[in-house]
Amino acid sequence: MKILFISDLHGSYDRAKTVLDKAKKFNPDCIVLLGDLLYHGPRNPLPVGHDPKATVVLLNEYKDKIIAVRGNCDAEVDQMVLEFPIMSDFSWLVADGRRIFLTHGHLWNPENMPPLSAGDTFVYGHVHRPKAYTNENGINIWNPGSCSLPKQSDCPTYATYENNTFRVFELDDTCILEQTL
Question: What's the predicted TM-score (pTM) here?
Answer without folding.
Answer: 0.95
